[in-house]
Design brief:
15 helices; five-stranded mixed sheet; 18% strand
Length: 487
Amino acid sequence: MTRFFRSFGTTASERALHRLCTETFLSLWSYANVYRDQGRPKQGADGKELCDLLVVFGRHVLIFSDKSCGFPDSGDSARDWSRWYKRAIARSAKQVFGAERWILHHPDRVYLDPACGIPMPIAIPANARVHRIVVATGARERHARGAGGSGSLMLNPAIVGSQHTEPTATPFTIGWVDGDKRYVHVFDELTIFTLLKQLDTVTDLVAYLERKEELLNAGGLAFAPNETCLLAMYLATLDSNERHTFPEGAVEGKSKLIIDPQAWNDLVALPNYRRKREADEPSYIWDSFIEYWTSHLMDGDLLGDVSQIELALREMASEPRVLRRALGQGILSVRSMVAQSGKNFGARTIATSPEKKKVYALLAVHDNGEDDYARYREYRQLVLQAYLHITKSRLPPAEKIIGLAFEPEGSAGGSEDLIYFEPPSPWTSEDDERARDFAENLGFDASPSMRHFRDWEFPRRLAQSPEEQRKTRNRRKRERKARKGRR
């Protein structure tokens, strides 16, 4: 497979944006400085830059335009704001809309290089759901100097199109950039950083963008002092399915929200918020697995069915941060279990929902002193393939099974195997019989170690380690004895 060509941004602010987005969306789905061929490319002529950053993940397409402009200082704040807005925001929005039109009409003519010789490696879907994003930097210092606070842009949806630059316009305030009310998200250097650090998976970020667009389209927002305060309201509100949203009346257009200027500071001061950062730590193991495989994919050194690897990586990257906690913890626990037990292998199966339609099979396999590492890898892959069939037999609803195999804790090697498995339909009694033979021959337990993960995003308390649990049990025993002694 050919090595991927990619740009990392041409300006300092573009490079910073690319680094930030790569951490959130991961490398395979995030591309800086993509181009279009302008319809009639001339010999030796370069294409035209389409946008500063393009993210394509499933049906979601995020178009970023980044502008870093110094804020004028003529002494007339309204005039300075109008000039800066036209350069930093209106011009960027025009680029975003142009990129959107091209992508929707010519999805197969997006390129990674100026010569338009290297096509975009991720296909842009026909049913693309586009999110328009402008990152405008350079005004925060001036705003903070005049008004105090963070200096981030305020949100007022009552302002539409050219009203942003009228003499009576309120400086540093954003509404509907487009006069036709096609929403453009406008972030500054602080809010884009906070947003991508807080919502640092593509699923979590896209969910926020969609809920925010729904809120604005319903007319449910009156004013927000900045984007982070709006984000705080979103994170503090859950619907009946425990998904983040905004208050129901506002989303339905029955009421209008006015966000408290202290909303973000109040949120981050909560002990639950600090616990979230700690609880998330194991989840980044999952990110590292995705990046490990992505780097090999983009370097062109993978053998076998690369399309299956892409499917598996897309499924893995679609998981929200909270679910990645269980996946990361599952990897750690099964590696530790095999290392401590001395068994040949151990497994953990994690379903992403109670319906168990998508399942992850995590497998640690000991090398048993095998000197030939290539032979060990072949054996491990065979065990993983067998375990995927065993998993389907034990969990009939499973429609997608992503298998990950790796070495136990303390092993000298550092490789992983990844298999994307869609069981045949219908799954027959002969398939079940073959899976039972696999389980018997390999010595897997009769009852699988399987769980559906459920956790609080902002934990009331953190889970205790085994040693802490032992101390807690002993303390409670002493307390019970003391209470009996006082009776």
